[in-house]
Amino acid sequence: MLAAPALALGAAADDVHPIPSMFDPVSPPAEMIRGLSFLVMGIAAGILVAVSGVLFWCVWRYRARPGDDREPPQVYGSDQIEWSWTIVPVLLVLVLFLATWRTIDEIEASEPPPGSLHVTIVGHQWWWEIRYPDLGVVTANELHLPVSADGARRPTYLTLESADVIHSFWIPQLAGKMDVVPNRTNRLWVEPRATGTFVGQCAEYCGTQHAKMLLRVTVHEPQDFERWAAAQRAPAASDASVAEGRAIFQSTACINCHALDGTVADGSFGPDLTHLMSRATIGAGAAANTPENLRAWIEDPHTFKPGVLMPAMKLDDQQIDSLTAFLVTLR
Amino acid sequence: MTVLDEGIARPREDEARAGAWSKVHDWAVTVDHKKLGVMYVVSALGFFLIAGLEASLMRIQLAFPNNDFLPPTTFNRLFTMHGTTMVFLVGMPMFFGMANYLTPLMIGARDLAFPRLNSFGFWLFLFGGLLLYFSFLGGDGLYGAGTAPDVGWFAYSPLTGRAFSRGNSTDYWILGILVSGLGSTATALNIATTIVTMRCPGMTYLKMPLFVWLMLVNCILTLVILTPLTAAQVMLLFDRFLGAHFFDTQAGGSAVLWQHFFWFFGHPEVYVLILPAFAIANEVVPVFSRKPLFGYPFMVGATVMIGFISLSVWAHHMFVVGLSPAANTFFAASTMAIAVPTGIKIFNWLGTMWGGKIRFRMPMLWCTAFVFSFVIAGLTGVMLAVVPWDFQLSDSYFVVAHFHFVLIGGLLFNIFAAIYYWYPKVTGRMLSERLGRLHFWTFATGFYVTFLTMHFPGLLGMPRRIYTYDAGRGWDELNLISSLGVAVQAVGLLFFVWNLLWSLRNGEHAGDDPWDAWTLEWATTSPPPEYNFEQIPVVHSRRPLWDLKHPQDPDWKYE
Amino acid sequence: MTAAPGTMHAPQPPPLPATWELPSKGRVGMAGLIVTESSFFAIFVVAYLFYVGKSLTGPYPADVLELPILSSICLLSSSVTIVLAVRALRAGSVRTFGAWWLATILLGLEFLIGTGIEWHGLIYEHGLTIGTNLFGTTFYSLVGFHALHVLVGLLLLTLVLLFTAFGKLHAGHAERAEILSWYWHFVDTVWIVVFTVVYVIGV
Ligand code: HEA
Ligand code: HEA
Ligand code: CUA
Ligand SMILES: [Cu+2]
Fold first, then answer.
1. What distance in angstroms lies between residue B22's CA and the mean position of ligand 4's atoms?
2. pLDDT tens digits, one per residue of C142-170
3. What are phi and psi of A202, to 5 degrees?
4. C116 secondary structure, DSSP code
5. ipTM above 0.90, yes or no
6. Which of A186, A184, C199, C145 is nearest to B253 (CA)?
7. Cβ of A23 and B459 within 8 Å?
8. Is the Cβ–Cβ distance between B182 and B174 less than 8 Å?
9. Are A18 and B298 an interchain contact pair (Cβ–Cβ within 8 Å)?
10. Is A179 helix (H, G, I), strand (E, B) or coil?
């Protein structure tokens, strides 16, 4: 039963756009920004060409020739000229400002239309907690969204909060960044128009592992998204063959930091592990989510992510094997 | 000047030692503005090399994806120390050093208003800097960069709170900068007072050299913005040591308040760094174009405008913290407005060059490169001021590229210009033109390779302050090129340092006025005597030496 | 410098004004100090205003603060006495100067004692310390920095009083005394702001 959605999800998840370029937008806020940036670059290029043109002309035309020691005519200034090169920049600045103003309004004043999806993102030192309050889904680091089409708009409104220090949520192809500030709630709006996986990462320095606080957004066809959400809502797998690993998990400190449905684990310091294997990466993008990596992670997460806030648990090899075997069942 | 080359009978060995010792003593207890000025500039150069070394280590780490040359903690300490050093221990003392040495000479005074306060300010700055660097010795010592601070040069809360920054690394940052900041406040006060109260007869405000004008504005700006930083740092100390809650988000405190306080200082601070650079260009460009500065009153006006406007733009560093759209719009407008007075400056330099007979000696080469680089730098600044685009660009390598363009292409290039220009005055010797050209071409090339390239990873979504990145994101080659450029810069700097040392003994004798210049410092000997001028000069125009050299056609007829 | 040829026929510049007087170093220096100190206080004031009403737990200002009327009157009137002192010194009567100067010091001292009593009450009766809540944090730092400035002012004033007592002071020192009085006026002005912010707006 689980195999079918996994396959379908795979399609969007495999279509990864590895380069988070702001010039390759797939969502209206990012598209508006690109449009504005072209205007600004055009004006800037014009100014650069004009000014450096004059500069090079001066360098070429007015360089001192050998042997000519007379002083050039002494010119002290000219009010007309001064005013003209004050007015022209004022006008250019006005154009830039009006364009900026308009786009600020367009992006920031947008109200959620009915049918929008609401997601809460909580930044932690160095991973992302992701909650879908309307769908009852909790996951980490990998955001899944439905695609939005003209007839059936499904924009997503993100509520950004932080559990510790300041982070910043940034997927360049979807929207500009927005800081994730403790004791404050910020909002961000995205509306992906194409399926696929888009990448980004934390953009505000937040401590040792700021570099490995990556983000993935997978955009699905609507029905695939519903299937994904349903799978996330399902209770955790409970495979009898890995009871040993399960017991180790429940008797180790893991439960203090992680939540896992159907066990006593309800910590909130680390990512929810209920559907761990539905994620493509572990440690907020520090490694691919393979059984080998998972094992190595539990043995010592610091090999992937030095300084990470999860300690090495000092379990023996056999315990780690059973624990890994258990985790691998958590689809 | 002649004193220098008269052979003095060689003293005996022990006398020489005693002589060396008493020289150290002389420098340590001096209250002479010229010696203090030189000490400021030399310490700044020292700190520059150290901070450059830190940058080079970072660039090695970033040259390849998933590199493990440096562990993350070390990398984070390096960029914090690099940024903090460059801003507070290189940019600021360069400004104070130049102002110290040159303003009294340019206004025809014999020293600063408060010579002892001047020495006090210098030593506070130096001890603050040494305190900051002492942090490298804690913890694991140099390995792992000790307990050097790792919170970034703007030290955002709550990362700096007790909860997230244990140990004392952040305290080093606070105290080092606080102490050197007090020194800077004292010196700014001193220089401003000197300019207001000690100008020589005839030098009204509108006859001051523009260099002096910019220093005046800059000192006043420093007085207004530096104590707010001190205040914010005191609050942070209270938080860390007394359990106060200014920036404690757990107790209802605000993380954003620190940002407002820091950037209310931080933005004007970057203008405090760039105004001395403009000041230098204001002296160099006219002398080497052989024309008076075009539009002097407009330059004064533009400077004052920049000073005022810069106090109202700080939140452009905070466009992405979620201020209201109205606030973002306001700060976009004020930020863009600065382009106008800055443009006036650029245009007036061009106006000065236009119709001149430009001598491309070393100072002028650097100034020309400065004008070009600064236009690029300013335009990327305006791009950042376009709020929605800044939602993308903020905290990316595009910002890093922007500020290195202003700080190197703007500030550093002009510092080089200044050193080539005034070294003869300070030492009595010319710097080697040949080494100078090698320095210019290698460093400028390396700079463009490193930092022009750096804009692109930013546009491709690379955030700043990451110690490593995954392969295949489109950033690999760009980072490698950027890192290679640093090697070229380093070679250029070697030429420069070698030139400074070599010319001290072997440079051509400069004479009093090697550039045929017009301001008062060139009217005295090189190096100037302790009392600067035998007679306090009297001036009638902005170019007193022009008047002397062209009695038939003096400036005061036209001003 | 070599004289250019033709010096003989050179035009002469317009004469300079007969006297060339610029402001005194002391005044300008003190003005600068006041500017930079004002910036310092401005930040603490902003922090105070920003956190008005944001404390998560008590005690709140309205519960524990009382208007420090007497202290304020003392401090403000000390601005008057110091002006009278300086005026006396300029007129050459050192004894009158000493009297007014002493009055200034006593008034300032009363203010400090008032602050001490207030703080003692806050700490021991109401349990408010700098770490209690945002109110404590901002209150003690703002009021404390002001009190610190009063203290520094008092030390300087006392130094001058000692000089007076030992007969080292004469009318020639009037300008210096006046410059010091500027600092004292500044401290007073800051108090007006602090008073308004803490005891009027903040409660
Ligand atoms: C010397 C220092 C210096 C200078 C002079 C400037 C100059 C400018 N800076 Fe820069 N800036 C920094 C140093 C400096 N900056 C630093 C260090 C940071 C990063 C801090 C950190 O985060 O670590 C930063 C960051 C920074 C940001 C925040 C980015 C972010 O973090 O999101 C912004 C946003 O608005 C900005 C804008 C500007 C603008 C508009 C100017 C303008 O003053 C530029 C004006 C000049 C011109 C425009 C060119 C000449 C003008 C003309 C030829 C006239 C015609 C032009 C027009 C009509 C447009 N800067
Ligand atoms: C005046 C200011 C200034 C200057 C001149 C520089 C110069 C340089 N900077 Fe700096 N930089 C900043 C100010 C400056 N920087 C600031 C404010 C930050 C932000 C920090 C933060 O985020 O908190 C920053 C951040 C910063 C980063 C971003 C780090 C990050 O976000 O992860 C990088 C990365 O490449 C970098 C690189 C460089 C390089 C390669 C140089 C080169 O130009 C340096 C050239 C110098 C050398 C190559 C030295 C060579 C010397 C020797 C070979 C001799 C050594 C010998 C002895 C010491 C005895 N800088
Ligand atoms: Cu989280 Cu950077
Ligand atoms: Cu700025």
1. 45
2. 999 999 999 999 999 999 999 999 988 88
3. -60, 130
4. H
5. yes
6. A184
7. yes
8. no
9. no
10. strand
